[in-house]
From TrEMBL:
Listed Pfam families: DUF1416
Extent of the signal sequence: none
Lineage: Bacteria, Bacillati, Actinomycetota, Actinomycetes, Geodermatophilales
Source species, domain of life: Bacteria
UniProt-listed GO biological process terms: carbohydrate metabolic process
Protein name, entry field: DUF1416 domain-containing protein
Amino acid sequence: MCGAPKQGGALAGIDLDTQTVIQGQVWHDGAPVAGAYVRLLDATDEFTAEVVTSPEGEFRFFAAPGEWKLRSLAPTGRGERVLAADVGLNETTVVLD
């Protein structure tokens, strides 16, 4: 079993002027996917972190600014999304095939 922390909740106490937050949801067939694994990979596809989506399909990572790849794996499918994250809040959606 993955030791990833539960996702969801507010960003209370997070200084978005100095921190880079990547968050979003995983979707499949028009609905959020709970319990999906979301991996954060760097620009060279090196594994950096992994979390499990909340009941609402939400995930969140704290990262450095730069190019990142999100890869999601679930029984219903798999999806990827590449994004350039800046300091502040970076929101995205990963859609499973």
